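Reading is simple: the token line describes the chain's fold. The lines below illustrate.

. . .
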Amino acid sequence: MFESLKKRWQEASERVDEVNRGKELASQTAPGDPESLPDMIGLARQFATTLSNKGLRLDFKPASLDVVDRVLVSSRNELAAMSAVELADRKRVETHAALNMGAYVGEVLRVDEGGLWTKGPDGLPAVDLGWHIASPIATVLGLLTRGRVEMPGGAVESLVKYHGVVSAASREALEG
């Protein structure tokens, strides 16, 4: 799963690089070095702007994750409708959706819980919350492809629930 996600991340990084007109997004620096990350805050803002242009308001607050959940369900339905012949297109759509929605979800977590973007242990962008490294891109991909993601307290089936689990764990870590 992680090898596939890494490959998809690399493909997505190449596309983001083109969009940003040749800006170098990934470098060969040490894991965890934020200098080697793409502009995740910029991707989150771009995602929010794109949805705003479609009449969906995203304000980087946890309540806006309900809107992203609806977009995720719509994307999952589109992916399910694709035939096996369209496998390359499906992977491209999955990657694009995971990257963009993951950037937004990660930015909501970063702002709400306090944290910073970093590289996770798997090499993908993640949010360091101090007590935990949250992997919103992997979470979105899991929700897109399987409809659920296993978490320490059990499976979650939405981004709203994912945020709730991460926030509750954050509160417990602070109180402990």
